[in-house]
Amino acid sequence: MAIRGDAAGPALALPTDPEPEMGAAAPRLDPARARMRKLPDPKPLTRHGPARVIAMCNQKGGVGKTTSAINLGAALVEYGRKVLLIDLDPQGALSVGLGVPAQNLDRTIYNALMERRTSLRDVRVATDIPGLDLVPSNIDLSAAEVQLVSEVAREQTLLRVLADVREEYDYVLIDCQPSLGLLTVNALTAAQGVVIPLECEFFSLRGVALLVDTIEKVKERLNPDLEISGILATMYDARTVHCREVFSRVVEAFGDTVFRTVIQRTVRFPETTVAGQPITTWAPTSTGASAYRDLAKEVLAL
Questions:
Q1: Each residue of 239-280: pLDDT tens digit?
Q2: Contact at 8 Å (CB) between 64 and 264?
Q3: In CATH terms, is domain 44-301 a member of 3.40.50.300?
Q4: Which of 13, 144, 225, 245 has a CA positioned 20 to 30 A from the CA of residue 268?
């Protein structure tokens, strides 16, 4: 994908009028359904690693980052991949979503980042899903944002600690906090790809430009290998004109960078959080589970 200032292609531009008048101009057909396509099942692996690192990133909260990290990871495991999830949010939602009581743990991602003698191997935990491991987080991580400021090569701290485990996994998914602070910059510096979950409403669309600017700066100054893997439309409801128009605007602005898979709004996702399981195991035949399996196929095809 080309981002602004990248010599590989033209700059991306958001619509100049992000809030059109609703009603008569609304598309009659579901634009998300029109873009769907069936992908073949991925081929099995003969060996694992080194991992491709993907940051799940959006500075706006409540857009489905954590839900997408959990369920994409679980879907990749179903296709024979080994996956490590990293909770890089002091709120610890990723840990809670997998039923891990991170608030009671003595060591978390904070210790791996701030203590030279602590590695990711020391703090990772196995989940109930074979092949899916987690590096948990809790409120201790909030101190790292301040403490990292005085560190040498502070933006590359996560990249350094990831080196110990990358050969053991096929994918590392980093659930970023809803901000563009130093922890998120660490995730972008360590990643090869960025998945941007985007709620289908106009305020979310407006915030993407700021995130793309941040990704550009990290690419230029810290991580030339960084690319946007795709924009993932979440909380989509084809019954509303608003969702359909926002989705159409996202595709108009970003083209093929938008994943063809769309995550529909459903009550199943809150249920999985309470259960501490991915939707692929909690409701394996649901539309949500099918959507994340399709997303996993798209990610594997990149």
A1: 899 889 989 998 998 999 999 999 998 877 878 877 788 999
A2: no
A3: yes
A4: 245
